[in-house]
């Protein structure tokens, strides 16, 4: 039976030799002290940190409704910082959750705010969770009045700071549904001292019935995907979509995997809370078609969802719950945080709120981040930035403990991936004045394309998918499957951009349309088309358009200016813009009747006629100039760069010292080899584990020669080249280049151009920039590089201006060969130069190498392609198992052939003549050729006999090839010992 762990520990502690240790008082005291110290450290490390606040749940009854007397029970939790009392009252924050969530959805955010010293009151809004009442969509008479009564409750607590009797010192924070509540509460209750609404709406009617040419929501295009999800999640108790939908803590402000009050769904979205599932049903006695929605809200939704169109009554109901009509009453300083990845409440909603509130002189700050309803919380740098802005805003305007925060505008864009945690990285920017969605500058890009006919599918099926709720843009993933469907969209494209454009705001494009019914519903999209990748639709954002009064003939159509959703995106140089006009979109309701529209581009009003064969229009892209925002990650990277620079500097000093030492120790020239490009003598390379890669190799490369280094895999070819280039030290032997003994850092290396083990190009630079950077590193004048000759050899054409990361393997190989030839070095060393090249490029490389070995230059090339070596090289060195088995001129290694191929005018007559010659044997035909074994008879005699018989002889050719000689030297099944 195995011994127990405790027994093994006792044996491990027992003194060697079985001698029993004696316990002394000193040892007992010392051991006890160590145990106490270790125990204390372990306890300190693992003991959970005690929160600096306490939490208390309560059901609070408030009276709301139009009369202010209707009671409703709200499920609440108060987070109170330690030490808060009547003698030391603290400021408060009312924290509202997103649609469909509960108080548990925002618990992490509440804890963070409580850690900052605020009393935080969270609650479940009416119609959700354990709270009573019905959902009225942030109606001022219901949800807003509920929140105002909660402020009364805070004002009656002695441990909450007050500005006056009944007036608590309070800020209101909320995301999405909670953000709308924050705005509306500030408009209706002057006691609110500051608000932070996040990813919320300005006009709820316009949000669910958008129209991108400026028409009113009654003519908008119904956003059925989001509306259906909201209605479905609000129709049952305790389910839904919402937490604090903005950058936050572990759950980013969303629910924590399930409501703590036990009524919510455990299937929670980290951004918005619970995703609709199968939770408890509708309120008892209610209409199952409406769930917990108020009757008027339910009726309005059902009317719009049934017809796909809004009526004036439905629009009025939605606007009753919209901040748009109350912005002039908001006096509380407002920090508006809006997501760039948001097909529900796009950036234009925050822009309208900002302009309306600022018009009253109220301090407003706007921050855009890379997340949103479709993009989650964004990268960590975005979360940190927004949380800092919120804390700064509340600390000044609610706590009164900080200086006045800036009202500068901040935004961010995805910059790439973090190599450490594999997550996305966002770059933040800031500018003093808020530019809105129009930007501070414009970049106009022409797009062109013919007039096109597109079909509206019956009942909107099948429909393209540009975005799905919570899931963001799908266009790049579904392109060709469920993206822009054939026959249902028209495309218009620009030329490649000559320089990058940083888009910040809403692009615009003029279009024309015609319809036999006089009406059309269209969806306009802006794609960023990477020539080497998929076309990208920024966050799945589209511009829905409903046009009426259209002619049947496109030539009679009027210009319509379409404003696309605001985006933040860098469009790189070389990319194209693509405008797509589509008839269907899964997220929206479209006309049920099938019809074919005609669409095209339009010139802006007052613009001169465009040149070119196709109609053209201008996409106007807004831009904003801003300063980068430093983040802890950026500061850390700069510190890391400094550390690496110090290391590099130290290494450079070491290398310089070693080079000086080598130059000092070995400056002599071997007189016998002074004019010979390369001499290798008795080279040996043995590794520490005893493996011998090169046993004994010696050969020479002279001016004018192209020498092929041949051998099976593992023969020692690559090791020889590595030693030659100073990449590894030989165990024994010497290498001389033009008489100079070769050592690492030797100046004579500058006379060698090499391609060994890859060139190590920088992927973010173009091919030409890589060549120039390499040459600058040599410290030699640019005029000595012969760039034009090298680029002509590479044969890359205009591709030399593209970034290396977009190169194919063959393109990289050609550029690497050009780099090796920079400066036209006297000795060129190439390892498998034709790897990745196609047959025409291999043939060209053959001619290049032969031409290169002129004017006193020489080439050493290692290759597995024996046929290419035979046609290219003047000499060859055959290596097998670390030793040379043959060297010399290629024709000498090939040797005499026992058989000869004759190309003649009459093969049958020639065969009859040769059959009569003594000792001469005609071999079986090979691909129609006449192959003869002369058996010692001179070829000239055979030719003479054929000519005497009147047979024309076109060509005489030995049948032996370099491959035959190579296999004879190393064996057909030979394997090397493994090159290193």
From TrEMBL:
Record-annotated membrane-spanning stretches: 28-47, 635-658
UniProt keyword terms in alphabetical order: ATP-binding, Hydrolase, Membrane, Nucleotide-binding, Transmembrane, Transmembrane helix, Transport
GO molecular function: hydrolase activity
SUPFAM superfamilies in the record: alpha/beta-Hydrolases (SSF53474), Galactose-binding domain-like (SSF49785), P-loop containing nucleoside triphosphate hydrolases (SSF52540)
Domain of life of the native organism: Bacteria
Signal peptide: none
Entry-linked Gene3D superfamilies: alpha/beta hydrolase (3.40.50.1820), Galactose-binding domain-like (2.60.120.260), P-loop containing nucleotide triphosphate hydrolases (3.40.50.300)
Ranges for domain ABC transporter: 678-906
Region described as Disordered: spans on this chain: 248-284
Family, as annotated: Belongs to the ABC transporter superfamily.
The protein, known as: Alpha/beta fold hydrolase
């Amino acid at each position: 039976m195995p011994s127990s762990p405790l027994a093994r520990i006792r044996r491990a502690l027992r003194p060697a030799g079985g001698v029993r240790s004696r316990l002394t008082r000193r040892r007992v005291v010392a051991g006890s002290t160590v145990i106490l110290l270790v125990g204390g450290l372990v306890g300190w490390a693992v003991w959970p940190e005690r929160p600096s606040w306490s939490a208390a749940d309560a059901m609070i009854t408030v009276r709301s409704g139009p009369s202010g007397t209707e009671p409703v029970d709200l499920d609440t939790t108060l987070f109170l910082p330690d030490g808060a009392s009547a003698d030391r009252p603290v400021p408060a924050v009312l924290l509202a959750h997103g649609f469909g969530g509960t108080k548990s959805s925002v618990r992490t955010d509440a804890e963070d705010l409580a850690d900052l010293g605020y009393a935080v009151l969270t609650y479940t809004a009416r119609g959700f969770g354990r709270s009573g009442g019905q959902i009225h969509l942030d109606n001022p008479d219901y949800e807003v009045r509920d929140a105002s009564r909660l402020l009364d409750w805070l004002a009656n607590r002695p441990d909450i700071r007050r500005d006056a009797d009944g007036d608590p010192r309070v800020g209101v924070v909320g995301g999405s549904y909670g953000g709308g509540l924050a705005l509306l509460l500030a408009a209706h209750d002057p006691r609110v001292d500051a608000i932070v609404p996040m990813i919320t709406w300005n006009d709820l009617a316009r949000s669910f019935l958008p129209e991108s040419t400026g028409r009113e929501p009654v003519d908008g295009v119904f956003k059925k995907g989001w509306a259906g999800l909201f209605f479905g999640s609000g129709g049952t108790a305790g389910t839904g979509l919402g937490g604090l939908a903005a950058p936050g803590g572990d759950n980013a402000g969303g629910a924590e995997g399930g409501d703590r009050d036990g009524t919510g769904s455990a299937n929670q979205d980290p951004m918005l809370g619970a995703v609709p599932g199968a939770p408890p049903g509708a309120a008892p006695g209610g209409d199952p078609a409406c769930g917990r929605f108020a009757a008027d809200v339910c009726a309005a939704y059902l009317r719009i969802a049934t017809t796909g169109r809004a009526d004036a009554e439905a629009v009025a109901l939605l606007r009753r719950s919209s901040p748009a009509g109350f912005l002039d009453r908001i006096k509380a300083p407002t920090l508006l945080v809006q997501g760039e990845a948001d097909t529900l409440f796009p950036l234009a909603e925050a822009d309208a709120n900002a302009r309306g509130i600022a018009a009253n002189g109220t301090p407003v700050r706007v921050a855009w981040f890379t997340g949103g309803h479709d993009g989650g919380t964004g990268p960590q740098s975005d979360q940190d930035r927004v949380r800092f802005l919120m804390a700064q805003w509340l600390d000044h305007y609610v706590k009164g403990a900080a200086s006045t925060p800036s009202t500068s505008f901040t935004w961010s864009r995805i910059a790439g991936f973090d190599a450490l945690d594999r997550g996305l990285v966002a770059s933040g920017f800031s500018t003093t004045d808020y530019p809105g969605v129009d930007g501070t500058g414009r970049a106009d890009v022409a797009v062109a394309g013919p007039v096109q006919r597109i079909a509206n599918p019956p009942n909107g099926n099948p429909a393209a998918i540009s975005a799905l709720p919570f899931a963001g843009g799908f266009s790049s993933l579904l392109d060709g499957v469920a993206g822009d469907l054939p026959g249902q969209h028209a495309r218009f494209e620009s030329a490649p951009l000559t320089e990058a454009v940083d888009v910040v705001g809403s692009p615009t494009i003029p279009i024309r349309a015609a319809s036999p019914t006089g009406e059309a519903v269209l969806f306009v999209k802006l794609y960023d088309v990477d020539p080497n990748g998929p076309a990208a639709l920024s966050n799945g954002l589209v511009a829905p358009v409903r046009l009426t009064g259209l002619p049947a003939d496109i030539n009679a159509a009027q210009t319509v200016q379409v404003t696309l959703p605001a985006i933040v995106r860098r469009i790189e140089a070389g990319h194209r813009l693509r405008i797509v006009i589509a008839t269907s979109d899964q997220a929206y309701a479209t006309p049920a009747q099938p019809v074919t529209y005609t669409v095209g581009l339009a010139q802006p009003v007052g613009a001169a006629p465009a040149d070119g064969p196709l109609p053209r229009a201008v996409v106007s892209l807004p831009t904003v100039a801003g300063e980068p925002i430093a983040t802890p990650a950026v500061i850390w990277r700069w510190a890391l760069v400094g550390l690496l620079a110090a290391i590099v500097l130290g290494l450079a000093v070491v290398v310089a010292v070693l080079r000086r030492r080598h130059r000092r120790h070995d400056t002599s020239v071997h007189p016998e080899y002074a004019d010979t490009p390369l001499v290798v003598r008795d080279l040996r390379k043995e590794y520490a584990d005893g493996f011998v890669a090169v046993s004994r190799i010696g050969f020479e490369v002279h001016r004018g020669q192209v020498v092929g280094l041949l051998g099976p895999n593992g023969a020692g070819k690559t090791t020889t080249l590595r030693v030659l280039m100073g990449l590894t030290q030989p165990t024994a032997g010497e290498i001389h280049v033009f008489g100079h003994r070769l050592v690492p850092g030797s100046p004579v290396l500058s006379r060698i151009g090499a391609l060994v083990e890859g060139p190590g190009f920088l992927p973010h630079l173009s091919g030409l920039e890589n060549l120039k950077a390499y040459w600058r590193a040599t410290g030699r004048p640019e005029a000595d590089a012969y760039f034009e000759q090298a680029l002509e050899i590479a044969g890359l054409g205009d591709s030399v201006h593209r970034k290396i990361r977009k190169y194919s393997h063959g393109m990289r190989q050609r550029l690497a060969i050009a780099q090796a030839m920079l400066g036209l070095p006297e000795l060129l060393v190439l390892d498998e130069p034709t790897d990745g090249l196609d047959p025409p490029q291999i043939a060209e490389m053959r001619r290049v190498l032969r031409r290169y070995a002129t004017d006193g230059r020489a080439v050493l090339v290692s290759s597995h392609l024996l046929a290419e070596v035979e046609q290219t090289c003047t000499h060859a060195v055959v290596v097998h198992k670390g030793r040379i088995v043959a060297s010399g001129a290629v024709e000498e290694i090939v040797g005499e052939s026992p058989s000869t191929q004759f190309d003649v005018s009459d093969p049958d007559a020639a065969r009859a003549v040769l059959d009569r010659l003594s000792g001469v044997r005609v071999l079986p035909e090979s691909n129609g050729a006449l192959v003869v074994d002369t058996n010692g008879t001179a070829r000239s005699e055979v030719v003479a006999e054929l000519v005497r018989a009147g047979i024309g002889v076109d060509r005489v050719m030995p049948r032996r090839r370099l491959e035959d000689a190579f296999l004879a030297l190393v064996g057909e099944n030979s394997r090397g010992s493994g090159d290193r």
